[in-house]
Amino acid sequence: MNNNKKIIVITGPSGAGKGSIFEAIMKKHHKLLGFSISATTRPPRKNEENGIHYYFISNEQFQKFIDDGAFIEYIAPKDKPQRWYGTLTSEVDRVLNSGKSILLDIEVVGAKNVKKVYGRNSLIISILPPSIEELSERLRKRGTETREQIEERIMQASLDEVALHNIADAKVINDKLPEATEDTEKLVLNFLTSKK
Ligand code: 5GP
Q1: How remote is the CA of residue 105 from the centroid of ligand 1, in Å?
Q2: Where do the TM regions start and end (predicted)?
Q3: Is the sign of the CA dihedral 109, 114, 119, 120 positive or negative?
Q4: Which CATH number characterizes residue 161's domain?
Q5: How many structural domains are present in the chain?
Q6: Which residues have C-beta within 8 Å of that of residue 14, sequence separation ≥ 6?
Q7: pTM for the full model?
Q8: In this structure, is residue 1 part of a structural domain?
Q9: pLDDT over 80 at 41, yes or no
Q10: Would you say the CB of residue 38 lies under 6 angstroms from ligand 1?
Q11: What is the mean pLDDT of the chain?
């Protein structure tokens, strides 16, 4: 890979606010950071476009990418065929070759695999909710999940937190979004300007 370019991963449990932090930093630092378009088997939501937000592909296409070794990292649980996600090597190369570093918003397993591939050229930042109770409250208020789905997410969040403990280079507690965004931004900029 292009040696002076870096990959920064924002990860953490669903509902911790990593999406909002990711978007704010991308918007502010679009000259430094590029967006790698992931592939997914989930259907597009309203306002999402193929080739802009994601490459929306079939499970067969996704499997072919796996077989061809086209992913840097991916997650493809057999029991959730509509929740497969992966970062394409071609996308990462496209962004790095344009002279930018990359900011990824991916889940915990993916973050772990990016670290394996990019080692010290990558920084893993985990965004965590102040507490499991607060996370539960936020998910409930968001109103997009059923009670069972919230329970499943809470359980997953606890597991993610344990997994992240071992791999994250830095941790940001998202108590108040503006502060958490600022803290994350500082970590990103420090890493980008450090000499490894
Ligand atoms: P959504 O379906 O809401 O866009 O994303 C759901 C989850 O998938 C988020 O936690 C997001 O971070 C994760 N995700 C998005 N793209 C990728 C990817 O390429 N690889 C992995 N491992 N996770 C991803």
Answers
A1: 7
A2: none
A3: negative
A4: 3.40.50.300
A5: 1
A6: 139, 153, 156, 157
A7: 0.91
A8: no
A9: yes
A10: yes
A11: 92
